[in-house]
Fold these 4 entries.
Entry 1:
Amino acid sequence: MREISGKTRVLGLIGDPVEHTGSPAIHNFLAQKMGDDLVYVPFHVTGDGLEEAVEGAYALDILGLNVTIPHKIEVMQYVTELDDAALEIGAVNTLQMIKGGYKGYNTDFSGFMRELDSVDIQINGKKVIMLGAGGAAKAVMYSLQRLDAEHIYVLNRNIEKARSLFGKLDNVDIMGFDSWRDIPKDKYICIQCTSVGLSPEDDQCVIEDEDFYDLVSEAVDLIYKPKETAFMKKVVSHGGKAYNGLRMLMYQAVSSYEFFTRKEVPEEIIKELYNELDS
Ligand code: NDP
C-alpha cells in the first residue's frame, strides 16, 4: 500500500474529460520506480475554471501538471514562462513549477522524437508523408522540421486547415487524400496523424488504396489502440516497417515527469514502463 505522508507532493492532469486518462497509472509507476514521494491525480477542469485552476494549483504547491483537451492552447495565457518549442507548436501539455507560477512545455513533440529515436527511424534528409493536420500533427511537423526532413507531403481532409497550419513552410506540399498519386514515386517515411482507425473503428484506414502503401518504407501511426492498426497492417503487407504511437505516449509522459522532477528517468525504468503499457 502506497504511503501518503505530510511530505508527499502532488502532480496532476487538468482536462475535460479526464475519466479515461492513462496518465495517473504512468506517472505513479514512475514515481514508485524512481523512489519519489509523489502522487499523480486527475482534476476535472472545465473551460471557465482554467485560470483559477492554474493559480489554485500553484497556491496548493502542486509540483507539476499535465494539460489535456480542451485546454492545451488556452492554458498558454496562464503560464509564467513558455518554452520556445511550445510557443512555436502553439500548445502546452506540461506545466513545470517555477518561481511565481508554471513554465509551459510541449512534450508531444519530444515524445514523438524519442519514439523515432527508439525505433531507429532517421528523418534527416528524408522525404516524409504526413497524414492529417490536427493538434498532434503540429507537434509532429515541428519535430520533422527540427530533424531536417528534406520534404514533407501533408495530406488532410480539410485542405484549407492544413494550409493555415503549414502553408508557409518551404519544404511542405499540401493536398487532399485523393491526390496521393501526385506524390512522386519513391520510398517515404509516413506518419499517420489522423484519428481514423482508432478503436473501436479498428478496420478503418484513412487511405484504403493498396497502391499507396508501395510508397511507404517506414511508418508510425500515432494511434496505439488497437496495437496494430489497419494502416500498420497495410504498410507491413507492402514490405514496410510500422510502429504504433505507444512509445510516443510513453515518452511524452516520461519527458513531462522529467520536467516535473528535474531528474532523468533511466533507460531500464523506461523499458519496464514500456513492457507494462504494452502488456
Ligand atoms: P485532432 O482532432 O486535432 O485531429 C484529427 C485529425 O484526423 C485531423 O487531421 C482530421 O482531419 C483527421 N480526421 C478525423 N476524422 C477523419 C476522417 N473521417 N477522415 C479523414 N480525416 C479525418 O486530433 P489529434 O491530432 O489530437 O489526434 C489525432 C490522433 O493521434 C488521435 O487518434 C490520437 O489518439 C492520436 N494521438 C496520439 C498521441 C500519442 O502519444 N501516441 C498523442 C496525440 C494524439 P480534418 O483536419 O480534416 O478534420
Note: The chain has two domains: 9-106+249-278, 110-244.
Entry 2:
Amino acid sequence: MKFQASATSILDWSGDGLAIGLFDNQLELSGELAALDGKLGGLVKEVIAEAEFKGQPGNLATTRVAGAGFRKLILVGLGKVEDLKPEGLRRAASAAARAARREKCGSLGLALAVGNQAADVAAQAIAEGVELALYKDHRFKSEKDETKPVDEVHLLGMAGQEGAIDRAQKIASGVFLARELVAAPANYVTPISMAQTAQDLAKEYGLELKILEQAECEALGMGAFLGVAMASDLPPKFIHLIYKPQGTPRKKLAIIGKGLTFDSGGYNLKVGASSIEMMKTDMGGAGATFGAAKAIAQIKPDVEVHFISAVTENMVSGRGMHPGDILTASNGKTIEINNTDAEGRLTLADALVYADKLGVDGMIDLATLTGACVVALGDDIAGLWSPNDALAKGFEAAAEAAGEKLWRMPMEERYFESMKSPLADMKNTGSRAGGAISASVFLKQFVKDTPWMHLDVAGPVWTDKEIAYNSVGATGYGVRSLVQWVLG
Ligand code: BES
Ligand code: MN
Ligand code: ZN
C-alpha cells in the first residue's frame, strides 16, 4: 500500500474513488463540499437524500460519477464533531477503504475531516484503518487472489503527515504478523517455527535474541513450563527478543506472551463445547508480543523492551504430566496440577519469574488464559488485572488511544484460597466461579519486584464476525496498545 499525504483539494483531486467524511450536522454542505456538489451538478445532495445518509458513524453511501476526475464518490459518516476520536477515524477510514475495494478503485482519495484531533494523531489513525481493513490472508488458498487491490491512497489535506503515516504502517506490519501467527494452524505454527520467526525478526530488524533450549530451561529450574512441554513431540523454546535503543534508554519494559501453539487440554482433554479446534489461537499473547517487537524495532523509540514467550504445545502422551502431578517452578514454588488444561499459567509462571529478574520498570503479560474471561467480558473485550494502579491506568490510556477494548477487573487475593493444596504450595486451578480472577492471582505468585499487569485476551484475539477493520479470523489484538504503551 502506497500512501501520499497531499495538499490537493477535493475539487482538484483525480483518481478512481474519492471518499469524503461528513459530520451529522454538516449535510447542508458548505465551503469545499458545497463547491464539489456544484461541480457534480448537485449529486452529493441527491445521494445524501436517496441513501438516507445521516452522517452517523457506520453510514456509507457510494455512487458513480461522470465528468469529474474520479469515477466513484464515497460518503462516510463521522458522527458528531465533539464525539470524534481516533477510533472513529480508524473505523471511517476502514469503511471507505473497503468500499473502494468493492468498487474496484485502484486509487483512493481520502478526505475525512479530523474534528478536534491533532493532525498527526488523525493521520496515523486513518492510515491504520485503511491498512488494517484491506489486509487479506491468502496463504492457505491454492488459487491466486484476483480481487483488484486498492494500492494507492492519498490523504487529502494532510500534507506534512508522512511521519504519522509511516508509524501507522510500521504498527500495521506488526498487527499483520500477529494475525498471521494466530490464524496459521498448529501444523504450521509450532515452537520451532516460532523460534524461526523470532530469528527472522532479530536478523531483519537488528534485535538481540536469546533462545533457551530445553536443557537451559531445566538448568534454570523451569519445571512448570517444562511440565506442560513434556507431552509434546516438539522441543520447547523459551524465546527472548531484546530491542535496545542507541544511547541510554528512558525506561526498560518487558512484554510476555502466552505461547501455546496448540492447547488440547492434555489429559484433561478439551471435550464438548470447549472448541478444541480453535486452540491454534492459544499463542495469541505471543503473537501480539512478536507483532509489537516488529513494530517497535522499526519505530525505534528510546525505550529498552524485552519480548518473551515460553513456547510449547499442550498435548496428550505417555510422557505428559498426569493430573495430580506436582511441579516446581523456577522461583521454587510447588504446584499441584489439578487440571492439565490450566497450562497457560504454568508456562507464564516461569516466564514471569525470568522477566522479573531483568530489572525492568514494568512488565505486561498477554494471555489467552481463560474461557471464564470470555464469559465475563464477551469476545471483544480483554480483561486487565494489576496490583499497580499507575501501570493499569497507563495501559488503559494506551488502549483507548489505540482503539482496543479492555476492562479492568479485580485482583481479589482472597480467591487464592480456593487454590490451596494440602500437599504443595498451591493447585493450578481454583473454583470455577471467578476463574479468570483466580488465574490472575495465581500468576501474581510468580512476580516479586516488578510492577506487573496481566491482560486476558482469550476473547479478542479472534473474531467470528467482521467488525470495522477486523475481518473474520485473527485480529492481531494487543499490538497497537502495546506499541502505544511503549511509546508513551
Ligand atoms: N487456552 C485456554 C483458554 C481459552 C478458552 C482460550 C477459550 C480461548 C478460548 C486455557 O488454557 C484453558 O484451557 N483454560 C481453562 C482453565 C480451567 C481449566 C481452569 C478454561 O478456561 O476452561
Ligand atoms: Mn488450556
Ligand atoms: Zn491454553
Note: The pocket of BES (ligand 1) is lined by residues 263, 282, 339, 341-344, 368-372, 374, 429, 435, 458 (CB under 6 Å).
Entry 3:
Amino acid sequence: MYLCAMLENKNQSRTSLSELGEFGLIDHLTSGFKNKQSTTVHGIGDDAAVLGGIKNQLLVTTDLLVEGVHFDLGYMPLKHLGYKAIVVNLSDVYAMNGEAKQVTVSIAVSNRFTLEALEELYAGISLACEMYNVDLIGGDTTSSKTGLLISVTAIGEAKKENVTYRNGAKEGDLLVVTGDLGAAYLGLQVLEREKQVFAVNPNEQPDLEKYSYLIERQLKPEARQDIPDLLEKLGVKPTSMIDISDGLSSEILHLCKQSEVGCNLYEDKIPLDPQVISTCEEFELNSTTIALSGGEDYELLFTVAQEDFPKIKANPSLSVIGHMTAKNEGVNLITRANQKIELTAQGWNPLKD
Ligand code: ADP
Ligand code: MG
C-alpha cells in the first residue's frame, strides 16, 4: 500500500527466532532504544526498571492485544501494529489529563514469526516512542502456540490538581470532543472490502486515494498528546474525561453513569471529516451511526463548566457537541429533526455485523 509511506519497510530475508535465543532476541530488538525521560533512572536490562524524581501523581494503564481478536495481520502491517499498540495506551494516559513518560511491551509469539517480522513490529514501537517522547523501559518475551499477543503498559504523570476522572461531570457542563469521529471504523470497512476484492482478483490495483484519511486513521491512529497541554494553556480544567476507543455513544454513557448525570448530544454538532461523509454516502451508511458506534478514533471526550465556554469556543481542535443534564432526563441524541432519541451503547441504530 502506498499510504502511510513512512511506515513501509518490506524486509525480504527470513531468520528463524530460534537462531537468536530469547536473550539474543530481546537484545536485538531493544538495543536501538535510547531513554530520554529524566524520570527513567534505569530502563531495559535488569530485573526491574527504576523510575525516580517523580513529583506528580503516577498514571498506569495496560492493554492486551490478541491476534484474531483485536487485529488481523492480513491488512495490518506489523510496523503499524507496533505503532498502534503504543498509541492506544498513551491515549489512556492523555485521557486522565496527564503526560505519558514510559512504556513496557510484552509479547508472546509463535514460531511462524521471523526475526524480520519482529523487527518490523519494534520499528513501529520505536517510531511511536519517538513521536510521543516516551521511553521503552522493559517488557517480557515468551512463546505462544499460535499467533501473536502484545501487552503494553504505559506510565505517565499529572499534577494532582489536573488528574481528570470519568466521574466529575456536573449538570449544566458542556460536552466537548476533539478532532472528528467515525473515520477509523470506515477505514476498516474500506480495508475489509479491498481484502475481499483482492481475494477474488489479485491483479486488481485498488485506488485508495480517496479513502486515505480513513485508512490512515485505522492503521496509524494518533493519540491526543496535545490536549492536556492545550487545556492547561487555555486555563481549562475538564470536569471529566475519557478517550474514544469504543465509539462516542458508549463513552458518553460511561461518563454519564460514573458522574450520575444525563446528557443531550446534538446530532448536527458531531464533527465529521468530508471523507467520512462521502464514504458513508457511497457505502449507504448513516454517518451519525458511524460516529456514535464506530470506535477506535482515539479522540478525547470531556466536560467543562459552562463558564469555560469562551476559552474553548474558537479552538479548531474542540467541538462542543452537547451538555450534561439531570440524571433522570436520561442520555439522549437530539436529531437534526429535533427528535429526542435515547442513546444506547450501540448508538441509536445499532450497527449490524
Ligand atoms: P526476567 O527473566 O527478569 O523476566 P528478561 O530476560 O525477560 O528478564 O528481560 C531482560 C530485560 O529485557 C528486562 O529489562 C526486561 O524488562 C526486558 N525485556 C524483555 N522482553 C522485552 C520486550 N519484549 N520488550 C522490551 N523489553 C523487554
Ligand atoms: Mg522476562
Note: Residues 42 and 50 are 5 Å apart (CA to CA).
Entry 4:
Amino acid sequence: MLNLQLGIRHAVGKQGPITLDLKSSAFDPKEKVWTRFPPEGSKYTPPHSSCDFKWKDYCPQVFRTLRKLFKVDAADYMLSLCGDQALRELSSPGKSGSFFYLTSNDQYMIKTMKKAEVKIFLKMLRAYYNHVRAFENTLVTKFFGLHCVKLAGANQKKVRFVIMGNLFCSEYSIHRRFDLKGSSLGRTTDKPQTEIDEYTTLKDLDLNFIFRLQKHWYQEFQRQVDRDCEFLEQENIMDYSLLVGVHFRDTRDRLLTGGSFDSDSSRGSSPHLSRGDTDPNRFAKIKLGSNMPIRAERTVRKTDIEPQIIGEPTGEFYDVVLYFGIIDILQDYDISKKLEHAYKSFQYDPTSISAVDPKQYARRFRDFVFKAFQEDKFDL
Ligand code: ATP
C-alpha cells in the first residue's frame, strides 16, 4: 500500500500539458513509464521506508486527461489516495480473486487486475476515451489510473491495479445493493435470508423492486444504456453488470431484510417524494446514476418456473435515492468464456448462462435492465 501511495504521488505530481485531442501514440500499449524507487531515494524519487520497488504508469497522458474530463482535482486525488489515513481493504466482494481498496473519503476504489484484464483495457483505451468524452452521462465505470508495482529482486510478482470511481460515494448510506447482469443461472446470493444486510451483493434473482424513473430521466437512461451497451459490444466485452445501490428514505423501510418484507410497514403508494429534506443543494447534485430520488415498487415472484422474469409489481412504493453504473467491463469473450458457454450449454438453458457472446449479452442485459427500470407513470 505504501508503494502504491508513493507511486501515485509521483505519477500525479508530474505536470504535463493537457489537451483533449490526444495523439494516437498516447494510447500505445507500449506507452508506459517505469520508475525505480530505491529506499534511499533517487534524483526523481523521495527516500522512503518501504522496500526497493519499481513502479509503472500505463498511458500516463491518457489517464491525466481522463481525470481532467471527469473533473478530478489533482490535489484532491492525491490527498484521497495518499493521505495519512490508510486505504481500507474490502473483504473481497467479487469472485475473480481481485482485491479491492476504498479511500477513506469513499471517493475512489482500487481494484487489482490480472494481466489479461490490463491487456483488454489497453486495447480498448482509445475507444473508452472517445466514448466517455462523447457522453458525459455515460454509466460505464470511471477509470482514473492504471499502474503496476514490482518489488525489486528476481521472481517478484507484478501487482497491477486500476483506480476507479466508487459508485456509492454519497452522504446517504446504501441499504441494498444489486449486481444485475440479465442472466439467471446462479444469479442469487448464497447468503441465507437472515444474513442479508447492506453489504450483501444481491443478484438478478434476488431483485424485488422495479425502479421507476421520471419520464425525462427514463428516456435519458434508455438512451445511455443503449449507447454504453453498443460501445461494450463493439469492444467484444461481456460479463459486465449494472451495479445498483438503494437508499431507503424512510427509516422504517431500512429495517427491511431481503425476502422477509413486512408488508404492514410498507409506505403506501404516494407518488410524492419524502418531505423534510432540508438540503437545498439536493437537486443540484442529481445526475443519471447518482443521487436520484425515485420510487421503487416492490415486486414478488409468483413462480419459480421462469426465474429470469422480474416479479409482479405489488403497488407498494418506497421513496428511495438511487445510485447505479456499469461495472466489471474488462472481460472479453475469449476462448475460456467460449468454452464455459459450450460446457454449461450441455447442462443448462444456453440463454440463462452468463457467458454468451457480446451481442447476445448486450441484448439480454438491456432487455433485463429495461424491465427492472421503468418509467414512473405517476410522475408529477
Ligand atoms: P465477479 O468476478 O464476481 O464479477 P470481480 O472480482 O470481477 O467480481 P467486480 O464485479 O468488478 O469484481 O466487483 C465486485 C463487487 O465490488 C461488485 O458487485 C460491487 O459490490 C463492488 N464494486 C465493484 N466496482 C465498484 C464501483 N465502481 N463502485 C462501487 N462498488 C463497486
Note: The two ends are 49 Å apart (CA to CA).
